[in-house]
Design goal:
The chain is an alpha/beta fold. 24% of the residues lie in helices and 29% in strands.
Length: 441
Amino acid sequence: MERIAPGAAEARIIGIESLEQEARGVGRWQGKTIFVEGALPGERVEFSPYRRKPAYEFARLSRILHESPQRVVPRCPHFGVCGGCSLQHFEARAQVAAKQRILEDALWHIGRVKPEHVLPAIYGPAWEYRQRARLAVRNVPKKGGVLVGFHERSSSYVADMTSCQVLPERISSLLPRLRELVSGLSVRDRLPQIEVACGENVDVLVLRILQPLNAADEQRLRGFSDANHVVLYLQPGGPESAEPFHPVPAPELAYNLPAFGLSMRFGPTEFTQVNAAVNRVLVSRAVGLLRAQAGERVADMFCGLGNFSLAIARGGANVVGFEGTATLIARATRNAEANDLAGLCRFVRADLYRQAEAALAADGPFDRMLVDPPRDGAIELIKALREPLPKRIVYVSCNPATLARDSGVLVQVLGYRLEAAGVVNMFPHTAHVESIAVFQR
């Protein structure tokens, strides 16, 4: 790969046709694909390349010659430096349309499949939507002391930010106070991260500490917790080491799924969706598409703490949830018990990347299946499917490329139809594409 020194390449002009998965504008110039940071579809721009390969180049936006009518003024003063958002300059509805195109392009170019129907996009609040976040912390004397925020774009540096438009305002307003708090701790150089977890009635901050606190630190933290109405946890090791610090006992985190009468409890370092409002719509959409009937056997693959499992069981189906993490299996079991669904839900620990065939053999067959894998997708699970196959599969994805790959196998090898697919705007103002697809035999 050739790197181009600043100013060494002459600026050039192209039209931008689309966005790619990292939110760069895509155009063509002299047979090459050009990825231009900050450019939007429909724009004509002047660009300067900074890195190139034989078939494509990465470039910076030098000047906009024709501006998209969907370009807007970013709401956040830190946009462009902070790496938390990449699309605040693009009108919110246009972002979703671009993500739909990314999804459909991936399905066709990678999986060679097209949905029979495009599902209406799932929307939610465009601002103050993040109920989960990992904030980096770094003591930088040259920048005035401790910084707390997201990383700068394409950098390991921490952005110098005092507010965040996608965090709830009550959490955004804590950023300056967190900087002051950490500055006064003896462990200011040994506290690399603060994790935020917001529930229905409580907000938790998990402080990752790499050395013990002294008595003055502990007093300072208790005062911060009481003054700002947040629960503090300390995490000296991995996520499983996080324990309440103040107050103790700590109130439990929970989110609600009102359409199903469910309250889902979770730990502050356990996986939940970052956007609670969109998650409520997503669960309802997934359950509706699955069409499980009372008495049917349904598998919930990569079930986590039971986000979909309990909603499916509420309709009378018998659900078996599979998950590789013991703590999440225990959490899902407790959630089923707390919501009076233990008789319809059972949770099995299984590594679906290595043990999918054994898990299916031991607990199958299933009438229907819901799949919600990590970014790597579910190819090992799909390859392990055997007759009798589930007649209907709903696949929730956080990566269009792996969804497309897995869709190709489901359709071309296992004989499913891709009945429908659509995007879920879980992360407004970012290039992240969440989606949902339904397959029918």
